[in-house]
Design brief:
The chain is α/β, with parallel strands linked by helices. Helix content is 49%, strand content 11%.
Length: 370
């Protein structure tokens, strides 16, 4: 490696959107659970373990994670799964997370599927953790509270946000970005809340209440994260194109808007980051799922967006492999991309290293006031 590759390999990271790793082993379905996690879009269990491993992320696991677990690079899927069972989820995390080189983890705590807490994540991975509060979870708590919904939502949001660094919405999973996203009148909010409470107050899909939550998050001024694009099949991919947020962005003021993941809309997100001063983006989740093709994706992220608007994230969730792969593949991909610019005499070496630092930690430290 040259100086750029060496710098990318060792630079400290702020993972600005991540979840915990699995808190407990799955003795009855250990192999199936892991192989299924390799297929993000499919919410059903794999029919065959090969379905998960015969993917870019499956190959990346065997290439980049296997050596840290004491296996040969490109070992068989059978050997890899056997070693995972021997180590257990905590053992795998202890081997992989410190090698990611993350100094700060910004943890979305709204997805409760048997994951460790932010504090436990940082204890294993090193560094410190901060909370990202999910708006739809706040809504569920407000629906369960007594009294007016709007007042309960605002009270819970402010209480939770007092110890958090950002809020996050999964609007992409609850109807998408199309249509009116304006702040609804208070009377409509209470009527919608009563209907939702009467239905049990779980899984928020009511458009009025979703809009209400977004605007109360804007009022806070903390960075507001949006899931964009690629995810499991519960999301409407066509309705999660960030261009559909354009009118909302025009009314978002100075609150930083963070477009997460972005695949296959990374170019659209890059345009929005150039068009709106408060819009930022990352390539988390997509990077580890693209595996050997992640370098091309990282290069596309560098096309349109101002470099001050790009951040690093892994969106690791469940298998600790994802937390590690996000970092390992980003380090390799960013180094190759900027090295090609330097080799073509389009960038200076100093600028290449400066941009790596901006994306790795500098931009996140500024936007989240860390």
């Amino acid at each position: 490696m040259g100086t750029i590759g060496e710098h990318a390999a060792s630079v400290s990271l702020i993972d600005h959107h991540v979840h915990g790793f699995w808190a407990a082993d799955s003795p009855d379905a250990h192999d199936t659970r892991f192989a299924s996690a390799l297929l993000e879009a499919d919410t059903a269990a794999v029919r065959s373990l090969d379905d998960g491993f015969d993917t870019q992320v499956g190959f990346a696991v065997r290439a980049h994670c296997a050596p840290l677990l004491g296996l040969e690079r490109h070992c068989s899927a059978t050997d890899y799964l056997r070693r995972r069972r021997e180590l257990g989820e905590t053992g795998v995390a202890q081997a992989l997370l410190p090698a990611a080189g993350v100094a700060q983890w910004l943890v979305d705590t709204g997805f409760d599927v048997g994951l460790v807490s932010p504090e436990e994540l940082a204890a294993v991975g090193g560094g410190v953790a901060h909370e990202v509060v999910r708006l739809e979870q706040i809504a569920e708590d407000a629906a369960a509270a007594s009294g007016g919904y709007a007042d309960a939502f605002v009270e819970i949001l402010h209480r939770r946000a007092a110890g958090a660094v950002a809020t996050k919405s999964i609007l992409a999973y609850r109807g998408g970005f199309g249509g009116d996203l304006g702040d609804p009148p208070p009377a409509l909010v209470e009527l919608a809340a009563q209907r939702w409470r009467d239905d049990g107050g779980v899984r928020l899909t009511d458009r009025i209440l979703l809009r209400f939550g977004l605007h109360r998050a804007l009022d806070l001024g903390l960075p507001l994260q949006f899931h964009i694009g690629f995810g499991d099949r519960d999301a409407d991919l066509a309705a999660s194109n960030p261009l559909l947020l354009t009118d909302f962005l025009r009314d978002s003021g100075d609150t930083p808007i963070m477009l997460l993941h972005c695949y296959p809309f990374e170019r659209e997100a890059g345009y929005l980051a150039q068009a709106f001063g408060n819009v930022h983006l990352d390539g988390g989740l997509a990077i580890h799922h693209l595996g050997a093709r992640s370098g091309a994706f990282i290069a596309r992220l560098l096309e349109m967006a101002p470099f001050s608007k790009l951040l690093y994230s892994s969106d690791g969730c469940g298998p600790a492999e994802f937390h590690h792969l996000g970092a390992a593949l980003w380090r390799t991909g960013i180094a190759r991309a900027v090295q090609s610019f330097v080799d073509a005499d389009e960038w200076s070496r100093a600028d290449a290293i400066r941009v790596i630092d901006m994306i790795a930690h500098g931009n996140a430290r500024r936007v989240y006031r860390l």
